[in-house]
């Protein structure tokens, strides 16, 4: 029997991404987001949601660009820190010891130490309620060679951090269950 637990912002897993932006003075900033996902295949787009009160919100609105930095497990502490601290109050890169790098394709920094980077130009923003959703067209992806498998990022090599919103815990990715568009054939009548 299912039990109703009410309407909540809950889906498993949520990403633990770090968004890179520049402020009005060109100072790099980073903020962790969990509300995000792929929104379109062609053009390739990603969506993230931020509160208006955040520095990253202001930076994206002004610069119309951001990076999505996908951290590996070894950077879970830094990922958490980027979500707790405010770019208005401190230099998150200086405190964390991580390295901001100017993106090649958009006016936003990325994090050198993270294995997978999506460079995005803002194409839409939608006020939803407490959050505004930003849709960014992915103009390039940068990946450390060490996480590639035949030229494609391998999730088992990237070892991304994921977030459980209800318990506020970070998790690692688990085991492979089967090949997509393949294991379903076992129950298909066609």
From TrEMBL:
A matching Pfam family: Flavin_Reduct
Gene3D superfamilies the UniProt entry points to: Electron Transport, Fmn-binding Protein, Chain A (2.30.110.10)
InterPro entries: Flavin_Rdtase-like_dom, Flavoredoxin, Split_barrel_FMN-bd
UniProt keyword annotations, A-Z: Flavoprotein
UniProt keyword Flavoprotein present: yes
Cofactor list: FMN
Keyword Magnesium annotated: no
GO molecular function: FMN binding
Parts of the chain that traverse the membrane: none
Domain of life: Archaea
Family: Belongs to the flavoredoxin family.
Name this polypeptide is given: Flavin reductase family protein
Organism: Methanolobus zinderi
Source species taxonomy: Archaea, Methanobacteriati, Methanobacteriota, Stenosarchaea group, Methanomicrobia
